[in-house]
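Hi C.,

You asked whether I'd gotten around to modeling the 631-residue construct. I have! Everything is below, sequence then structure, no commentary in between.
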Amino acid sequence: MSWRPGQNAGRRTEAGSEVSARVAKLSVVVPFYNVEHYLGAALESVTRQTLRDLEVILVDDGSTDGSVVIAKDYVSRDRRFRLIEQANKGLGAARNAGIREATGEYLAFFDGDDLLDPHAYGLLTGSLEKTGSDMATGDVRRLGATGLKKSRIHDGPFRKTVLRTHVSRLPVLLQDRTAWNKVFRRSFWDAHGFEFPGGVFEDGPVAIRAHVLASSVDVFHNVVYYWRLRDSGQLSITERYREIGHMKQRMAAVSDMAGFLAAHAPGLRSAFDASVLKGDIRMLVQAFEFATAQEQARIAELGASYLSTVDASAYQAVPVFQRLNSYLLGHGMLPELLEMLRYARLNHQGVTPVVRCDEPGPHSRREARWCACFPFFGDRERGVPDDMYDVTSEMTLIACLDSVGWQGRRLRFEGHAYIRRLSSATLSECQIRVVLRNSRTRRAIRLPVKRVRRPDVTARSGQAATCYDWSGFVVTVDARRLATLPGVWRAASWELVVEVSGGGLRREGPVTSVRPGSAQWPEGRWVTSSVWLQPAPEHDGRFVIRGQQVSAFVTGCTAGEGTLDIEGWASHPLPAGAMVVATARKGGVAAVRAAAEPIPALGTQQDTGGRRAAFAIAVPKKTRPVAAATG
């Protein structure tokens, strides 16, 4: 039954039936069932979307609490809302009922206990309008009583924004299996006849099919969706992962997705299996330890049934502890699996040593293999392959800057770098090399490294198995060496790159983090009268030194009588009649031209070997410009 006060809105129907006179830009389908504690906040986040051209189709799936009262209140207050009421049939059926009523050019799904970022639908729908992609998807955060945290299953796909991509080029999108952090092009949805299956875990089969069948997908680093961890009311489907019935339906959905990929995108099956080991099998393993003996037998059966179809190559893309657990579950080694879980629960992972598994010859170019000494490593009777213990790929570079400062003309960096799990207890165990690399010309400046003992790095590393005491370093560089040519400066950026080698391994990469303080907010300097050198961390953690040519600089701005009085300097003497153009960054205010008057008291300024011409301008206040530049 569809409900709204007054005349019922038009809807999408079979050919020949009445059709809505107006099609919304976006249809948002919101199924709900007994979520009265959360529904009001959820719907409020929909009303606050910056995209106003939308219709909201609420689907009550037979709620027995006060949810429907809240829904009807929003329908009565906002003409964009409509309500469908039906007997309880499950989330998939409720979404399908909403889709049949939807009229929009684009389609989105939103669960009634979650929250949306205000810009979510504007961002995703606007992107589809520009790129022509079939689907847009964005990052997710978990929302609980203690605040926000990253969503484990969404951690990989959204590390950067990529437009017009595809799962075949970005296989990590196989982890993006939820329907509600997306906007779909409705014509794409209808062309492939997508429909949510019954039962639970209905998102994955639709999301995987959409990723594979889409012509292209827009992926956004921006957080668009807040996925709630419930602290009252009924547990959500995801939170009931320990129930045998839910595990059975989870693995049935996984098998459905795997079957689709085998038929339509076999090249993605191994990457998909790796995501299953990291996610779905991990959930089975978590439930296994405290299950009854009967439940353990059923969990083992569910896991082994799927794991028997997984190629060995998929295991190597999985962290070592999850890899081992999956192997033990799949091979029916249940007492060993329980021992591994007890080992983890007692927090022994933080003190698990690693050993070198092989010894390459002196002229071998192959890197060494390292294994973690988890239970049963080297136990030939049990016969777990050493590959299951291999942690070489997890021995990644950690490079951090602790402080940045100036010593005269020299820029000084102090930091630490090590290979995760590889000892640097003595000075000779690892070598550290630091270079500055020009991002445009790729020219590299190798910096002499002074090694520093840093026991505090070991103390802060959160583990007790590996010593990183000799991971500290100090390097300095004369700012003049960063010129494009001796004495010639052009806009350029220099990236700080660190290499650590030892134990048959070599890892190279950018600085990955900075400590609070001078490394986070380092001081810039004028290296000539018109070149500003600014070291700073980027949003992704890389540390870059940028040299920028400055032709004019505002040094002061005060409110005068009817004017905005601006003072500054230009990097060259100003000719008679020189003008300054002031432009507003926002608001569409027309640019204002004003005469630049030399400041006689200052004339020219001498700084770092160059001359600056000081000036003053008076801009009428009524224009309210917010930026100034010489012209």
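If it helps when you're writing up: Confidence is low (pLDDT under 50) at residues 7-21, 601-609, 624-631.

Thanks,
B.
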